[in-house]
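FAQ: What does the model actually see?

It sees only this:
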Amino acid sequence: MKNTLCTLAVAMTLWTSAANAWSNALPVGPAVGDQSLSPFYIWDSALPQHPGVMLREESIPRQPDITDASKIQRILYTSQDKRWNAGSVPVSGTLWFPQGETPKGGWPVIAWAHGTLGVADACAPSWTNPTPRDAHYINQWLKQGFVVVATDYQGLGGPGPHPYLNWEAEGRSVLDSVRAVLQAYPQQIANNLVITGQSQGSGASLGASLIAPDYAPELKLRATIATGLVATFPDGPIKPGHARPGHRDPARFTLLRLIGGSLPDGAPAADKWVTAQGAKMLTLARTACMKELGRYERKEKLDGANAFVGGSGPVNAALIPVTNMPLKMFPAPLFTATGLADHTLSPHHQYAAVAALCAAGNPVEWKTYPGITHNGTVNVAFEDELAFVRGVMEHAPQQNSCGSLQAPGEPQHPVKGVPFNT
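And it is asked to produce this:
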């Protein structure tokens, strides 16, 4: 306990001393998940006001599950805060270069948007390394001759709250990571971009693509990939229903939203919405990541009914609907994928999102995979994603699933023997 208090005190001191680098509108400190990771993540000078400026880099040792990288860099760059209008903020991430000679014009770039890891700084994948599932996925793109840049998202590693599931805030983090690496490596990296994301990252991927024409018009976005779709479209033709199969009501995702900026300005603080049981898990969520939160939730038999005052209904009604997106045309071809054994975000929820994308006039290639789970979809879909991207790069006609959408049934049982299909 003494060590924990010392760590929190150090983190508060560091973030308070760095507060002059951005607007005072940005909440900072341990209550919003700020932690002291290393000096690399602390920017205590004036920040450039232009988004996508590379602030610093440092080399990272080779990662066991990423075997096809020739060079790995931890990066820190500027982005523009959307949630608190705090102006320029530092955001961290990771950059991998493939092996081999740089092609004429530079390597094409994959911008990877990760799924839910937590909201505490220690959950930033540039600090912890990507999960084995994500590392395998990143490595497959490196094998195909793509540079991969992966934002941690605003507030994961950097100062202030991580605006969890806020698609426009996360989308800015994605686009600005690409701007930063193009600025830093103009000869090695081409302005030839594919954005891809899973689960939370599917919202970031779609969000980045949606705002790209206005926010980052100089980027040449070629294709967008979104798997394990989290996005909701209130004006879509299909109602998404309850996103959790079996009407499960886990507490941990809502707790992340309480810390991560989904409470409206002026609403009661996060601690006011939780019961005594929920308060302990809320404290944990400010320092721990999803695996530990999931174990604690199961051990203590917590859910929305007993973690929140009055159950999850009042808090969910109060939270900003950060996954809601408008019906609009996207600037690049869309590929989406759903595991039909997804017990995290129901296949019907994802079908509703695809139907909305189609209703807006977008041609969408939607692949579904029998017996594949939320986790399994990331890598099972890769070969189809690769074919899609190659087709886009070669200007080949793209498949369009919009004329043949079929509503999926209840989530299936997972098939065994598929890597990461848990």
